[in-house]
Amino acid sequence: MPEVVVSIGPQHPALKEPVNFKIVADGEKIVRLELDLSYNHRGIEKAAEQRNFIRVLPLLERVCGICSHSHATVFSKGIEEIMGLEIPPRAQYIRTIIAELERMHSHLLWLGVAAHVIGFNTLFMWTWRDREAVQDTLEEMSGNRVHYGMNEIGGVRRDLTPAQVEAALERLPALEERIKKYVEMVNSEETMLIRFRDVGKMSREEALKYGAVGPTARASGVDYDVRRDDPYLAYAEVPWNVITDTHGDVYGRTRVRVGELWESTQIVRYCLENLPAGPIRVDAPKNAPKGEILSRYEAPRGELAHFIRTNGTDKVERVDIRTPTLANWTSVAVCLVNQNIADIPVIVAAIDPCLSCTSRMTVVNRVDKEGR
Amino acid sequence: MSVLREMLENLLSRPITILYPKEKVPIPESFRGRVAITDDKCIGCSKCSLVCPAQVITMIDGPREVEFKGKSFARKKRPQVKLYKCIRCGICERHCPTGAIYLKHELSSSGTDREVVIT
After folding, report:
1. Which residue of A has its CA nearest to B88?
2. Are A84 and A284 in contact (CB under 8 A)?
3. Is-contact A222 A248, C-beta < 8 A?
4. pTM
5. What is the Cα–Cα distance from A124 to A114, expressed in whole angstroms?
6. Going by C-beta distance under 8 Å and a sequence separation of 6 or more, which residues neighbour residue A242?
């Protein structure tokens, strides 16, 4: 049978964000995938070069709506290291709490989206309802539901009051109960097992070869997590486990994310119960000395990296953002080979793609009159 | 089975959706609502307009007498905030030396009057 190219996107009713898939299929089986990204270039990196360190953080937060705290923290962490600032322990703990709450809301959102993709809308409604409890906690602590704006160079902007800590601790048991149910559901619910098992398989070797990160890599047995392997914030002090799985398919990725949900609740609980007293920030100098740094962070979707170069002024000379989705796209191309066309949505959704944060670069191929 | 049990539980429970605007969601203490300015406290230092990431604060003419640290000063400028462009980051509140600019606990900020969108 001749191969057929199915082109989907960049504008398509089934796609929420602009990306172009060219799927080469032989009947129902996928032969290979050609991806065309960067339909949504927003020029954030260039805009970041023109703003001082106070004004650049809200901009970088807006790289992504789901992992907004990740982008602000990884940037602050890098600049603080260049400046040689020591962040107070209380600020480290508050940043960790917000980071883990963000991971919880991101994973709950993902679980809902994955359920929606396989037509299991009941679970979609349940997870999004439970996500509200996390969002409410975040709103109470930071004042915002999406862009928390908690970071500043040198610490955090808002302190946690005893009432906020108590309210968060009160919400946790109900959430833990729900997450236990999701763990049970993922492992036993036939609707999910049929659609997730043996779909989009990727071996450990392939995950390493194609540079998969985050839950996608950990589901293939790659035991790597920046929070443990290059500890930052309060992760070195908090007892927690890295969740890995050996299935390597969408089922494995679901198990890793649900397991991480549980670990996040435990990290948040520990941090809230052992919140150190003291100041929440140190005074940061206006200018950063000349320097370069690659700041790494485990965002909900995987390893996030900001390359920052400063030149002695109050602005960055260059900031280069490598989002986890960009690292995971190649693994999608591997996962899709020999799979059914009907499984495309769930395999693509399994890496938790965020296209708007991924578009960092636009390559313009200009052809002159002589065809060069 | 767990799903069936869950479905039955949900069938008997009340929906959690709130019937807005008949019912209002509770707004937490720390909520970042619309920006407000207390003219009596503002010393017109224009720090808020310098730090604003969305560049929505401009200094306009507003001659007045201001009391600061027990002394009376004549100030010429006051800040004006274009609320329709405000991203509610709260950086102005964080850097204001006198606490004159702050974020109110007000959820809704839509309307047809000019005063609703420009402070």
Report:
1. A144
2. no
3. no
4. 0.91
5. 8
6. A218, A223, A224, A225, A227, A228
Can you tell me the distance from the alpha carbon of A217 to that of A224, in angstroms, rounded to the nearest whole number?
8
- Alpha helices, DSSP H, located in A144-302: 162-188, 190-196, 204-209, 214-218, 226-229, 250-273
Show the tokens assigned to B38.
Answer: 């207390």
Q: Is A129–B54 a contact, with Cβ atoms under 8 angstroms apart? A: no
**A220-233 residues labelled b (16+ CB within 10 A) or e (exposed):** bbbebbbbeeeebb
* Residue A342: DSSP 8-state: G
Predicted local distance difference test score (pLDDT) of residue A42: 83
Q: What residues of chain A lie within 8 A of the CB of B94, using their CB?
A: 152, 157
Q: Nearest residue on chain A to B25, judged by CA atoms? A: A136
Judge whether A169 and A293 are in contact, CB under 8 Å: no
DSSP annotation of B82: B
Asked if A75 and A56 touch (Cβ cutoff 8 Å), the reply is yes
Q: What does the block give as tokens for A147?
A: 């862009």
CB A68 within 8 A of CB A75: no
Q: Tell me how far apart the alpha carbons of residues A113 and A272 are, in angstroms, rounded to a whole number.
A: 29
In the stretch 181-210 of chain A, residues with CB closer than 8 A to chain B read 181, 184-185, 188-189, 191
Whether A191 and B90 lie within 8 Å, measured CB to CB:
no
> Rounded to whole angstroms, how far apart are CA atoms B56 and B32?
16
Give residue A313's pLDDT.
Answer: 92
Q: Which residues of chain A have pLDDT under 50?
A: none
Cβ B30–A140 below 8 Å, yes or no?
Answer: yes
- Chain-centroid distance of CA A367 in Å reads 37
The full set of domains in chain A, from first to last, is 44-320 (1.10.645.10)
Q: What is the Cα–Cα distance from A62 to A58, expressed in whole angstroms?
A: 6
Residues of chain B below pLDDT 70 = 1, 109
Q: Which CATH number is associated with domain B24-117?
A: 3.30.70.3270
Question: Across the interface, which of A122, A149, A181 has its CB nearest the CB of B7?
Answer: A122
